[in-house]
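Hi Y.,

Following your request, here is the sequence exactly as I used it, all 337 residues.
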Amino acid sequence: MKIEEFIDPYLGRSWGDLGARVLSSGNRVSVTLGYPAQGYTGELQNRLRQFLNADALELEVHFSAPPGRGFEQVKHIIAVASGKGGVGKSTTAVNLALALDAEGAKTGLLDADIYGPSQGMMLGVAEGRRPAVKDGKFFEPIRAHGLKAMSMSFMVTENTPMVWRGPMASGALQQILTQTLWDDLDYLVVDMPPGTGDIQLTLSQKVPVAGAVIVTTPQDIALLDAVKGIEMFAKVDIPVLGIVENMSLHQCPSCGHVSHLFGEGGGQRVAKQLGVPLLGQLPLDMRIREQADGGTPTVQAEPDGEVSGLYRDIARHMAARLWLGGTSGPTISLVDD
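Below is the corresponding structure, written out as tokens. Let me know if you'd prefer a different format.
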């Protein structure tokens, strides 16, 4: 067996087909992948040992971001969206950004929810802290937990409502996106507002978004709205990288009993129906909410925990879909009404 014939666990295609760079000498192997996988080296090493039938194998995994369709020095822009509010989109977005960073990618986070920004609180940025201004017109992103972050919450107080019409909100989004000195980023994760309104259209029309991730719960009404979100991105030619099913199950901390409080298997059904991958499923766990509300999201608070492992697995899968490329990924066919 040749190492190039090894089937990538996330993409189901050989490393040779995907263009991975593989170097080997004796029992030492070095592979450069198009998605960050710093926390996956041990598992890959075991899989390669089985594939090559080799007892002794030393594996080094490197990451090289594939050419993107971003802007300036931002290689890939990933929109994290939901069809409705209350499904844990913002918590998922910040943890996925932190997971990409933990896996070895240079990552930024943009809070595009102009009316209800929450990433400042989730990242533990003190109220009143403002981004520095350079040359009178550029913002320096605020550093938080290793991320470069920007949010409308950095510009106003927590109690200030954004009483703006759609065009004003869209203009504000364009300004904080394009006038922020992101510098060199592999990924910019954009926490979108819920729904399919002005902000979504502005981002899709004005910004080269590489792909979108839809967050939903197994609840029927949430899944219905998730389908609308997926169809919206398809209509504006933004590849949907996959679905994240949040609040998938709840495990009682006392007895271990597992309950599917919002239904079961809904994310998988929608993914199959629309031909997009189910990137992963996350539990309904009070600690996720408490840690995000406390300013230290789960991936940062418990980096070696089980839930952090789930976020990091979803982040690798998501980034792998970008490596595969939108043209090689799933195609969603729509029929106009």
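The chain is about 35% helix and 20% strand.

Thanks again,
Q.
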